[in-house]
């Protein structure tokens, strides 16, 4: 994973052994003992530093996850207590059900619709504001504004914008002479509409990441391209893109994980409908566990989802990160 | 694109169009929040209210205890933010500068926590908090969120970007890890820490399901629940809902206005450059 | 190197833990509710916690009822807590089962009734009624029937509603239809819709809401589930694919194909807004929306109301009660339960129900409320409400109109809604879509039954 470039800093262990090779035998032995002591202290210190985080993660993330593993092997009664051991039946049922595949493809579609477009929009806006012209402060603030909007409030606003007959978006369409679009009730449009809202909502954060990435690129590089007489597009794809590739990589990893977990906007805007066209995996899990009160099958699905995200992230780190250009 | 090579007028036109698109939902919210109920539900939808109508805000404040909610949200969000900065910077220091067995494994474990959908582990967590008798308390709202994989990841990258020469010098001076951490790494990473702070605050401010689940008394509730209280099963008044949305957005907008600069600088300062 | 000793190590640890504990040791604000402040009750009043899902205006009215009760009952202190939507609230209840953190009483939607009984965490209100020979003869029979299982009233009816047909009287006049003689059958609705469709106006739109489908079936006397709608013994199979349902969907789809009906999705809020804006001339909605719809249409057009339509050759039936009821949890002290029972009785009193009805649009659960002057005034102001009352009273009591019961009701509703969407979008014929829905619902019921013993 990202450990390839770890420890760029000389640690005490390192510098000590370097010294030791130059000193006499007895001194070296003494140093070795000291080094060993320092080393064990370093390890203790490291664990102490990690302890608070691990404690919280253990209690509030891994323990419930293990509980999910346990629950996934049972049917639960209306009180949510285990009622009957069913082994892997829950998993078999999920893998045999049409709904699982529908929600899986919906999730992939949602990721495809939101992640590349969201990042592209952020790059465009960041590029437009990455200069020293007047008024950039205001534009930067405007483009990062959606970051302040929560899923709940954002969905509420868009629900009203998307209203089938009174919504202002359809009104604009009618001014353009177009037929109204059933944004959230046409199975062909619903996912696109939810994706559009999501792109808007995530734009603020993605934009800030991209802008920061571009500001990190040294001015000298641009100056030299200016002298070369390289055009703006060429400069962008040849120079800027590779230089911000670490940012791009980070943003895409975080966005993909975020897209897998998108829940609030779907719950408020479409509830997975129409005809399950926006029923993504997390929503399906929520439905099974918290609306239909089947913790067993909900947990089993959650574990499958977890495994998918894990595999995909490992993949991103193993293969995609190779292409990332670290300075 | 490298904008210095393009005509200014082109850039400004593009910027204005994009701003309009990005701002539109928020401007619409502002405009509708000032309308009367009848205005907010006619076709064709008016773009601007006929008269500035502030009574919606009064009605919202009347329906939900906005100030209590904002106070609670501030306490919870700030506490989580500070806690996350402490735990994440400690963990990031270990991952960036210390050698210990199981490092790769533990780092993967940290990253893996980002992938667990929160909705899925909510009920077991509720049971944990309940058994600790933390329902209706600030710690119930705060403690489960005190550690952050995202923040650890971010700060680790920041720490790794710090100039190595400084540490060499410190080492020669006989500066221990604690001193190094407190007097060098932390002060030098202020921008990165500010980034984490703003990001964490906004996320906490926006939590909905967890505060709903773990609080029973109105005095303990947070702002996002207020939105739910404005929705009405039978007939929603858009003007009312949107003025509530606007009221609850104000604090986070303010923070963004103040925090944008450190946010951008923090990420620029090398947080994401491996 | 010396400086890096145990002391600094411990200091670091200490400092990090101190920060964390400082962050979380803020104990909750001591501010208990202010009501008890100046008063001097000999002993502390019994505290009753009521979880409800009443938000917006409804929430304000519910709060008023609570404060009125508290003001007149010195020895009882009711605390009403909004717990999110019915789903969210039920979730939370479930998580709290087996501990003291739950409420004394909770408001649950009608389709959660089977589920509530199966939790075995509730006490039927019949217990309290029997103990003091509480007179339930004035309870609205239709409402009472719904919440009666195995001969016992399990929960106390609180907010009840029905679907009715809303129509735009002005549009009827303009289209040459008689505004005082609204359509009664599917066929008449289709004809009226055709006449009403012109310009920017479409004849009708019904939200894709499983509740309407359940009502259409009951209105034709058709049962939704086997084993007497799940009332004779727990249901094992769904009958949502019966002839009555197929006929309903064919009618619905036909109007859509003829472009005299719009598909505006699942949210009744969307059809309601379109109706109030004059974009559609007929819609289905709950009686509880009446006030909202009439006031939204004020100055634009006159609102008419009519019975839920049914096919000309449909069987005898009527409407099922919708809304929610109040459930008593069985894990609180006897004293607390008694106090909650007092509150339930208060909520069912004619005056309380009159106030509730007039301010929310839900039916009074007691027929005595209709004698209250408040209700009479209201009926004068909103004569449209008489339709709803008549529809309720003309409903023929049978298993179909008593309402189906199953533990997986919320899910069944969703599956039905998906089936309607499949038909309206032309993906399946009514029979195909409903067959599939019935089969899926039956399999969910089967799994559920396995977990309840």
From TrEMBL, chain A:
Highest taxon in the source lineage: Bacteria
Coiled coil: none
Domain named ABC transmembrane type-1: residues: 100-316
Keyword Hydrolase: no
UniProt subcellular location: Cell membrane
Record bears the keyword Cell membrane: yes
Sequence intervals crossing the membrane: 45-66, 108-129, 141-161, 189-209, 243-263, 293-315
Keywords for this protein: Cell membrane, Membrane, Transmembrane, Transmembrane helix, Transport
CC terms in the record's Gene Ontology section: plasma membrane
Gene3D superfamilies per record: MetI-like (1.10.3720.10)
Membrane-related topology note: Multi-pass membrane protein
GO biological processes: transmembrane transport
Pfam families referenced in this protein's UniProt entry, alphabetically: BPD_transp_1
Family note: Belongs to the binding-protein-dependent transport system permease family.
Protein name: Glycerol-3-phosphate ABC transporter permease
Organism encoding this protein: Paenibacillus solani
UniProtKB/TrEMBL annotation, chain B:
GO cellular component: plasma membrane
Main location: membrane
Subcellular location field: Cell membrane
Record-annotated membrane-spanning stretches: 64-93, 105-126, 138-159, 180-202, 238-258
Membrane topology: Multi-pass membrane protein
Pfam families for the chain: BPD_transp_1
Recorded family membership: Belongs to the binding-protein-dependent transport system permease family.
Record-given protein name: Glycerol-3-phosphate ABC transporter permease
Automatic annotation (TrEMBL), chain C:
Disulfide bond as UniProt keyword: no
Any one cellular-component term (Gene Ontology): cell envelope
Database matches in InterPro entries: Bact_solute-bd_prot1 (IPR050490), SBP (IPR006059)
UniProt-recorded name of the protein: ABC transporter substrate-binding protein
Key words, A-Z: Signal, Transport
Lineage summary: Bacteria, Bacillati, Bacillota, Bacilli, Bacillales
Gene3D superfamilies named among the record's database cross-references: Periplasmic binding protein-like II
One Pfam family hit: SBP_bac_8
Family statement: Belongs to the bacterial solute-binding protein 1 family.
SUPFAM superfamilies xrefs: Periplasmic binding protein-like II
Superkingdom in the source lineage: Bacteria
Secretion signal span: 1-22
Record's subcellular location: Cell envelope
Predominant location category: other
Transport in keyword set: yes
């Amino acid at each position: 994973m990202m450990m390839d470039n770890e420890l760029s800093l000389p640690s005490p262990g390192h510098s000590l052994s370097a010294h030791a090779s130059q000193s006499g035998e007895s001194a070296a032995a003494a140093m070795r003992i000291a080094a060993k002591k320092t080393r064990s202290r370093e390890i203790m210190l490291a664990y102490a530093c990690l302890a608070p985080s691990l404690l919280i993660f253990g209690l509030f993330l891994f323990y419930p996850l293990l509980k999910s593993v346990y629950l996934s092997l049972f049917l639960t009664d209306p009180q949510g207590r285990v009622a009957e051991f069913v082994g892997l039946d829950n998993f078999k049922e999920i893998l045999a059900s049409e709904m699982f595949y529908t929600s899986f493809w919906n999730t992939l579609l949602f990721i495809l619709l939101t992640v590349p477009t969201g990042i592209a929009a952020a790059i465009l806006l960041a590029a437009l504001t990455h200069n020293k012209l007047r008024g950039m402060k205001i534009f930067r603030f405007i483009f990062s504004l959606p970051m302040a909007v929560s899923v709940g409030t954002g969905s509420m606003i868009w629900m009203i914008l998307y209203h089938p007959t009174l919504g202002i978006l359809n009104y604009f369409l009618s001014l353009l002479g177009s037929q109204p679009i059933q944004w959230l009730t046409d199975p062909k449009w619903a996912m696109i509409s939810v994706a559009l809202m999501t792109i808007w909502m995530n734009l603020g954060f993605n934009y800030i990441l991209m802008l920061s990435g571009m500001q990190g690129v040294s001015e000298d590089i641009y100056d030299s391209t200016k002298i070369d007489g390289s055009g703006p597009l060429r400069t962008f794809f040849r120079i800027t893109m590779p230089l911000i590739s670490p940012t791009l990589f980070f943003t895409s990893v975080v966005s993909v994980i975020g897209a897998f977990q998108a829940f609030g906007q779907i719950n408020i805007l479409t509830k997975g409908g129409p005809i399950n066209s926006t029923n993504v995996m997390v929503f399906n899990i929520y439905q099974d566990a918290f609306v239909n009160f089947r913790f067993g099958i909900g947990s089993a699905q959650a574990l499958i989802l977890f495994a998918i995200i894990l595999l995909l992230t490992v993949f991103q780190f193993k293969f995609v990160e190779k292409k990332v250009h670290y300075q | 694109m490298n904008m210095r090579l393009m005509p200014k007028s082109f850039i400004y036109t593009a910027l204005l169009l994009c701003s309009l698109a990005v701002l539109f939902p928020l401007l619409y919210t502002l405009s509708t929040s000032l309308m009367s109920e009848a205005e907010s539900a006619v076709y064709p939808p008016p773009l601007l209210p006929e008269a500035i109508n502030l009574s919606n805000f009064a009605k919202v404040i009347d329906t939900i205890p906005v100030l209590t909610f904002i106070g609670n949200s501030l306490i919870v969000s700030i506490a989580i933010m500070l806690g996350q900065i402490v735990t994440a910077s400690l963990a990031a220091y270990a991952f960036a500068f210390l050698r210990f067995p199981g490092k790769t494994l533990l780092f993967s474990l940290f990253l893996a926590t980002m992938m667990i959908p929160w909705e899925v582990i909510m009920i077991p967590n509720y049971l944990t908090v309940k058994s600790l008798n933390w329902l209706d308390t600030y710690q119930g709202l705060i403690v489960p969120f005190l550690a952050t994989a995202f923040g650890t990841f971010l700060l680790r990258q920041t720490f790794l970007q710090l100039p190595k020469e400084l540490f060499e010098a410190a080492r020669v001076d006989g500066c221990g890890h604690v001193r190094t951490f407190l007097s060098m790494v932390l002060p030098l990473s202020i921008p990165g820490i500010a980034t984490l702070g703003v990001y964490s605050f906004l996320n906490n401010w926006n939590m909905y399901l967890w505060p709903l689940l773990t609080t029973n008394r109105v005095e303990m509730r947070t702002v996002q629940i207020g939105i739910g209280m404005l929705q009405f099963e039978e007939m929603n008044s858009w003007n009312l809902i949107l003025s509530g949305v606007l009221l609850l957005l104000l604090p986070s907008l303010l923070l963004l206005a103040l925090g944008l600069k450190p946010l951008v600088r923090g990420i620029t300062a090398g947080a994401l450059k491996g | 190197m010396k400086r890096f000793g145990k002391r600094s190590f411990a200091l670091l640890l200490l400092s990090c833990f101190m920060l964390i504990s400082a962050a979380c040791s803020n104990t909750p604000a001591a501010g208990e509710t202010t009501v008890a402040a100046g008063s001097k009750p000999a002993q502390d009043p019994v505290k009753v916690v009521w979880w409800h899902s009443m938000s917006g205006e409804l929430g304000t009215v519910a709060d008023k009822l609570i404060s009125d009760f508290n003001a007149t009952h010195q020895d009882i202190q009711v605390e009403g807590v909004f717990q999110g939507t019915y789903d969210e609230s039920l979730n939370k209840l479930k998580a709290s089962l087996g501990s003291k953190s739950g409420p004394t009483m909770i408001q649950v939607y009608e389709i959660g009734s089977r589920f509530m009984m199966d939790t075995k965490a509730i006490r039927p209100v019949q217990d309290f009624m029997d103990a003091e020979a509480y007179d339930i003869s004035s309870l609205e029979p239709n409402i009472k029937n719904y919440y009666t299982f195995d001969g016992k009233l399990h929960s106390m009816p609180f907010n009840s509603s029905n679907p009715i047909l809303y129509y735009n009287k002005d549009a009827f006049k303009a289209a040459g239809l008689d505004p005082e003689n609204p359509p009664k059958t599917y066929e008449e609705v289709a004809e009226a819709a055709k006449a009403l469709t012109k310009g920017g106006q479409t004849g009708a739109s019904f939200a894709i809401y499983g509740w309407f489908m359940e009502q259409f079936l009951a209105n034709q006397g058709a049962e939704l589930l086997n084993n007497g709608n799940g009332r004779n013994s727990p249901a094992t199979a769904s009958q949502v694919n019966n002839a009555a349902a197929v006929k309903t969907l064919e009618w619905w789809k036909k109007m859509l194909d003829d472009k005299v009906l719009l598909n505006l999705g699942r949210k009744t809020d969307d059809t309601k807004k379109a109706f109030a804006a004059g974009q559609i001339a007929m819609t289905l909605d709950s009686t509880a929306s009446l006030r909202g719809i009439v006031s939204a249409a004020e100055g634009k057009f006159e609102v008419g109301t009519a019975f839920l339509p049914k096919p000309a050759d449909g069987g005898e039936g009527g409407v099922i009660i919708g809304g929610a009821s109040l459930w008593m949890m069985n894990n609180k002290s006897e004293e607390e339960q008694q106090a909650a029972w007092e509150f339930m009785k208060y909520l069912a009193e004619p005056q309380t129900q009159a106030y509730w009805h007039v301010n929310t649009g839900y039916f009074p659960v007691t027929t005595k409320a209709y004698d209250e002057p408040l209700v009479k005034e209201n009926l004068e102001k909103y004569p449209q409400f008489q339709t709803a009352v008549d529809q309720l009273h003309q409903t023929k009591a049978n298993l179909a109109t008593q309402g189906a019961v199953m533990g997986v009701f919320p899910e069944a509703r969703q599956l039905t809604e998906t089936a309607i969407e499949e038909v309206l979008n032309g993906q399946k014929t009514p029979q195909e879509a409903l067959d599939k829905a019935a089969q899926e619902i039956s399999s969910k019921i089967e799994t559920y039954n396995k977990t309840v013993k």
